[in-house]
């Protein structure tokens, strides 16, 4: 997988897997066959599987290497996790993601920071690894940056995801709880983008006059560029998420900066532009 430069920042996707995931209507209540019909010609085959009709989602991280830091944004699903509501993600044993990180020339020990856009199961899994009967940070030398509000909500929920992939980071003393406008430096900073979860953040990158933003799960599928009001059934606050999404798309269409998505199909990266009274996503090929 090719990397790309944002000024002097190198950005590379680290894939866990990609494939047909869920039927549109299982994600968006509004996505009836009739509502999707005008979009099929551009959604298929890249973003929607013509055979199964399912939306195609990658599960991936972004490796960001600035002059000063090696950073991971989100850490996918992970191995050996207890995930009852998605059996195919439970007790995974493949090390594909870790292999892909190493293939990018980066050992886990070299990661300085892990940013989680939010603490859902497919964004914090490789935070930890199961070693000798306990959960340990996969990145022994990293600070893990969590939005304070996101951490508090996850702690209150106390799910197995929190217990397996988040709490061990706190117990190891490697968590750094921050405000949702936290800036690591003048090249990497957070932006509050609530709705999908309580403390969801996007991660902005800038260098030498170029800019990009990793948007996490404030948007899941390019069909939402045409329908920014379509909030997935798994958004915590669908109305707030829709407002956040609309503002994000409008501001990125105006600024023209690169958008690094979590779940848009490969190459996952591109530009938002205005189309009619909504938006469209133009991919930038690897
Ligand atoms: Zn996700």
Quick structural summary:
With 286 residues, the protein is an alpha/beta fold. The protein has helices spanning 24-27, 33-36, 40-43, 96-103, 148-157, 160-171, 223-226, 238-255; strands at 3-6, 9-22, 55-65, 70-73, 113-115, 128-131, 134-137, 143-147, 175-178, 188-192, 201-207, 210-214, 258-260, 269-275, 278-283. The protein has a single domain, classed as Metallo-beta-lactamase, Chain A.
Quaternary assembly:
single chain
Q: Give the spatial strand order of the biggest sheet.
A: 1-2-3-4-5-8-9
Q: What is the approximate shape?
A: globular
SSE arrangement, N to C: EEHHHEEHEEEEHHEEEEHHEEE
Task: Find the count of extended strands (DSSP E, 2+ residues).
Answer: 15
- The value of Rg in angstroms is 18 Å
Largest sheet: 7 strands, mixed
User: CATH topology, which one?
Assistant: Metallo-beta-lactamase, Chain A
Fourth-tier CATH superfamily name: Ribonuclease Z/Hydroxyacylglutathione hydrolase-like
First-residue to last-residue Cα separation: 7 Å
The share of residues in extended strands comes to: 25-35%
């Amino acid at each position: 997988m090719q990397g790309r430069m944002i000024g002097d920042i190198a950005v590379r996707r680290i894939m866990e897997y990609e494939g047909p995931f869920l039927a549109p209507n299982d994600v968006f209540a509004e996505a009836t066959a009739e509502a999707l019909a005008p979009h099929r010609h551009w959604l298929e085959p890249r973003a929607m599987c013509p055979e199964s009709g399912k939306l195609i989602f990658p599960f991936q991280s972004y490796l960001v290497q600035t002059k000063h830091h090696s950073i991971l944004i989100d850490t996918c699903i992970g191995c050996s996790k207890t995930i009852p509501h998605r059996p195919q993600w439970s007790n995974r044993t493949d090390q594909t993601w870790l292999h892909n990180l190493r293939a990018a020339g980066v050992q886990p020990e070299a990661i300085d920071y892990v940013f989680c856009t939010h603490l859902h199961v497919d964004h914090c899994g490789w935070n930890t690894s199961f070693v000798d009967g306990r959960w340990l940070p996969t990145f022994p030398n990293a600070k893990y940056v969590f939005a304070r509000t996101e951490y508090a909500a996850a702690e209150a929920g106390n799910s197995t995801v929190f217990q397996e992939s988040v709490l061990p980071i706190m117990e190891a003393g490697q968590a750094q709880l921050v405000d949702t406008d936290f800036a690591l430096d003048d090249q990497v900073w957070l932006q509050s983008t609530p709705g999908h979860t309580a403390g969801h953040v996007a991660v902005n990158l800038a260098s030498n006059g170029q800019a990009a933003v990793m948007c996490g799960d404030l948007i899941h599928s390019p069909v939402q560029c045409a329908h920014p009001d379509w909030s997935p059934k798994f958004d915590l606050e669908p109305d707030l998420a829709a407002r956040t999404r609309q503002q994000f798309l409008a501001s990125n269409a105006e600024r023209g900066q690169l958008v690094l998505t979590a779940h848009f199909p490969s190459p996952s990266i591109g530009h938002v532009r205005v189309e009619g009274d909504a938006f469209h996503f133009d991919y930038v090929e690897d």
